[in-house]
Write a structure and sequence with these properties.
Elements: E1 2-4, H1 9-25, E2 37-39, E3 45-46, E4 49-50, H2 59-75, H3 88-102, H4 104-115
Parallel strand pairs: 1-2
Antiparallel strand pairs: 3-4
Helix pairs in contact: 2-4, 3-4
Length: about 130
């Protein structure tokens, strides 16, 4: 992924060409189909992360998780577990960990929403008499 100023695609192409020459001289075999030139104003993503000015998560990922957590708080976790994930709270906590690693500030906001969810009322194991954890 290469970035260039919005109106300077020709310069960006020259830089890509120079980098490609160096790659070949060093004996590497790049996958040319994966080489991209993107203007600075476009969302530049590598491995699912936005890498424009600073490392961040896609806005849609944040909005989706925020909506899930808000609805869990309002309507209970079972209402949002559409795929029947066995330990839905742990599943969401894993996603939150990923968010906190990439963007601690946004991750903290989502963690506050997670902490406000009444998890104990929606665990299927709670309804099994005699089950000891």
């Amino acid at each position: 992924m290469f970035s260039c100023a919005d109106g300077d695609l020709a310069r960006g192409r020259r830089i890509v060409s120079m980098v490609q020459e160096i790659i070949l001289e060093e004996g590497f075999s790049p996958n040319w189909r994966k080489t991209r030139l993107a203007p600075a104003c476009a969302s530049q993503r590598i491995t699912g992360l936005v890498v424009n000015e600073r490392l961040n998560l896609p806005r849609a990922e944040y909005d989706t998780l925020k909506a899930i957590l808000t609805n869990c708080r309002r309507h209970g976790p079972a209402s949002q577990n559409h795929r029947g994930v066995p330990d839905f709270g742990a599943h969401l906590q894993g996603r939150l960990s990923w968010f906190r690693q990439v963007n601690p500030e946004r991750g903290a906001r989502l963690q506050a929403l997670f902490d406000a969810v009444p998890w104990e009322h929606d665990r299927p194991d709670d309804s099994v008499p005699g089950l000891v954890r």
